[in-house]
Amino acid sequence: MGTDGGWRVSLYLAVRAIRRGNRNTLALTVLIIALVIILMNFLAMIIGGVVSLYNQQMIDFQYGHVAIEPKDRETTIAGADALVRQVRRVPGVTGVTARSSTGVTITNPRNGKFQSKALSAFDPADEQRVTQYQLRMKDGDYLSKGDSDQILIGVLLAGTGDDSRDKLPSLGGVQVGDRLSVTYSTGIVKSYRVKGIFETEGALIDSAAFITRDGMDSVLHTEGTATEILVRGSSPDGATSLKYAIMNYGVEEKVKTWNEKGQGILGDAIASFSLLNTIMTIVCLVVASVVVFIVTFINIINRKKQIAILKAIGIRRQVIVGSYLLQVLFLCSCGIVLGVMMLNAICMFLSVNQLKFPMGYLTPIIDYGGLALSIALLLVVSIISAFIPARQVTNEEILDAMRG
User: Fold this and answer.
1) Which of 99, 237, 355, 371 has its Cβ near the most Cβ atoms within 10 Å?
2) Which residues pair with 65 in a beta bridge?
3) pTM for the whole thing?
């Protein structure tokens, strides 16, 4: 803006112009900038909520913090019980559970409906220290160690009895106490009593079925083996450290964190959402730049004679341009503050009135890093959009400007 107090003159001219300007135009411009801030960050807020919800469900019901898988070219973990005891000695481990899974066909004898599923078996006491199925029982009870002829199923697998109301193919309305026929890949058929039905709000999780390891061992003779071992630590953020700690204890099987296990499933969806968010951000920046350009241009055109007089009395062009840039900074600052307040209000509203997604109820999360970036981009674009018309008009000759 120059030296010798030039910035003070620019500030004086900017304040004077804002005070004498049209209040309605000022309010509308601030509102548009606020809406731009909201639109630039709304989708990212929803994506953050989806990712957080999905990650929590992976940890609480599918993988724990760390999952141990069989070695390459092997389908099971031999000596699983000894490995479980070994992992329990690793510092930071709070729970370890071994699971055995096999493909089965589950049939509801009452209506003949059947579903082909992966039936998983675990020790109920160990599982409670890693996952949270015991906290999500909709009907009945959780499995106990001696329940060799009982089964635990998800609410979507159980179904409602009305196919039009079922979200996924089901067994047609199974209730606690009903008996299900399970056909194993070996041809063995065994009847299980439904002890409990759980509901986690996760579509894939709520279509699963579980029995005890004793129950599966009695049929398939899988004693001492497992298809995976799940480990829970102190926090999700410490999963990577826990992984390497387990490996340092001599575990030769494949060890993966919950993030490594789940990134492929949600990765494509997040990439698509991110692309949409980028497109929306670009559109919003274009809208903001056009609005600022038009407002500044109209403001300057209406004051061409005043600008000519200022130049005639010796005020430098940089000072005049600076005054318009300060006006735009003021409008953007007001719009940004209003936009951030409205965005937080929307976030609070959606936290109370939650959106329901296939994996459960979503709580939106504002990405403040992304919000800061969008604010910086908006300020840069707005300043450039204001500088172009201001510089163009102030470069005109004084007599030409006086003629209008």
Assistant:
1) 99
2) none
3) 0.76
pLDDT digits (tens, 9 = 90+) for 366-378: 888 888 988 998 8
H helix count then E strand count, the chain: 12, 14
pLDDT in tens, 348-366: 999 998 888 777 788 898 8
Contact 255, 90 (CB under 8 A): no
CB 200 within 8 A of CB 57: yes
- Between helices 23-57 and 258-301, what is the axis angle to 10°? 180
- In angstroms, the CA 225 to CA 6 distance is 80
Q: How far is CA 173 from the centre of its chain?
A: 33
What token pair was written down for 329?
């900074």
Place of tokens 């936009």: 339
Residue tagged 């994506």 (tokens): 47
Residue 47 CA to residue 238 CA, distance in Å, equals 23
Q: How far apart are CA 163 and CA 169, in angstroms?
A: 8
Q: Are 92 and 234 contacting, i.e. CB atoms less than 8 angstroms apart? A: yes
The residue type found at 338 is L
Instruction: Give the tokens for residue 378.
Output: 């908006």
CA distances from 396 to 10, 311, 399 (A): 19, 10, 8
Give the residues across from 228 on adjacent strands: 99
Neighbours of 242 (CB within 10 A): 26
Angle between helices 368-394 and 258-301 (to 10 degrees): 20
What torsion, rounded to 10 degrees, do the Cα atoms 235, 240, 241, 243 define?
A: 100
